[in-house]
Amino acid sequence: MRLKIGLIGAALMLFAAGGVNAEDVDCDNAETQTDMTSCAQARYDEADKGLNAQYKQTRAAMATIDEDLDGDMKGAEQALLKAQRAWINYRDAQCENYGFQARGGTMEPMLVAGCLADLTDLRTKELKVLADGMGQ
Asked: Where are the chain's structural domains?
């Protein structure tokens, strides 16, 4: 929760400082901290969209597995839900910790957003492998 509040606060500061968003910046050549942070946040936003799309596909694959199992053998979808919730807690805590490299500085939100993007991309790949292994 603190992480989300911190990212929201950082985003508000960015907008108050000049309304910068990644669409207005060449993220391959970002030079200011504000631009780099905006680009890292945009990268995380895209990674999160990809994760959500893949999670839906993987969850559908798990539900299909459950349909083919009898009574007490079911649980694939529930296991995925439990794993995803634990992963979100891990990701958020890991990235909050990663941000301590620049605690309180203008670089901290960029580090956190970059970490969130990286770990989210990795999780999306894991979920894809899982769904593909289930024949989806």
From this structure: 2-133
Out of 3.20.19.10, 1.20.1270.180, 2.40.50.100, 1.10.630.10, select the CATH number for domain 2-133: 1.20.1270.180
Concatenate the DSSP letters of all residues of the chain into one string.
-HHHHHHHHHHHHHHHTT---GGGS-GGG--SHHHHHHHHHHHHHHHHHHHHHHHHHHHHHHHHHHHTS-GGG--HHHHHHHHHHHHHHHHHHHHHHHGGGGTTSTTHHHHHHHHHHHHHHHHHHHHHHHHHHTT-
pLDDT tens per residue, range 12-66: 444 444 455 566 899 999 999 999 999 999 999 999 999 999 999 999 999 999 9
pLDDT for residue 114 is more than 60: yes
